Amino acid sequence: MPRSLHGGRHELGQNFLTHAPSIQTITALIAATDGPILELGAGDGALTRPLAALGRPLTAIDIDEHRVHRLARALPHVRVLQADALQHPLSTSTVVGNIPFHLTTPILRRLLSHPHWTRAVLVTQWEVARKRAGVGGHTMMTAQSAPWFTFELHGRVSRTSFRPQPSVDGGILAISRRDAPLIPRTERRAYEIFVRAVFSGRGGRLDRVIQGAARVSLATARTALARASVPADALPRDLDARQWTALWHALQR
């Protein structure tokens, strides 16, 4: 395969998924959704082929022009485009892909800020998938997004399941947009700023961190934590979506 104008495998983060059970898991998750599908990072089509067999409108994109041309010839009934996952419109209801590991965070941030899609199934680094799903504690990005999205972990993918092998394992992460947001979308920016302030705040105990992040009295911070059923000595990563939401609403009073 000739070298792409955009770089080689290392620069493009090309680690092609070859593990049949993982491909079957991803396909089954997508089969449970409705509407058109957008695949990010189609590569040689390991996922594209079973997705195409679902019989739904499918757009597969990849930045490597040589693989795009070859896949388009092999699957003439699929819309195969040379495009950048960080720029291509996210206009379908379902998004799927074995995304380049080094682009995981910007792709996730773009997805979580986009208003149209409803379900995404992604292969990411294992640590990213685990943390986004809240296994072992929640990250700031997950906490910021939780009122509008749910995150589910659907398995670990050994690095030996990719060609060439990356240095870390992968994970199958499913993200769904909530039908009924826990916080109005108009408050999202203010809520995200608040969560960032809590995760980066100082003061030791959470009640004092909340006091500084929300700019309220210590008594008000403690009352809000009590209403949200959050211990004052908890850590930000310990809070789930319902607790963050309850805390936000309590502070808005």
Automatic annotation (TrEMBL):
Keyword entries, A-Z: Methyltransferase, RNA-binding, S-adenosyl-L-methionine, Transferase
SUPFAM superfamilies: S-adenosyl-L-methionine-dependent methyltransferases
This protein's GO CC annotations: cytosol
Gene3D superfamilies in the cross-refs: Vaccinia Virus protein VP39
Residues involved in S-adenosyl-L-methionine binding: 15, 17, 41, 62, 84, 98
Ribosomal RNA adenine methylase transferase N-terminal domain mapped to chain residues: 22-179
GO MF term set: RNA binding; rRNA (adenine-N6,N6-)-dimethyltransferase activity
Family that this chain belongs to: Belongs to the class I-like SAM-binding methyltransferase superfamily. rRNA adenine N(6)-methyltransferase family.
Matching NCBIfam families: Erm23S_rRNA_broad
Identification of the protein by name: Ribosomal RNA adenine methylase transferase N-terminal domain-containing protein
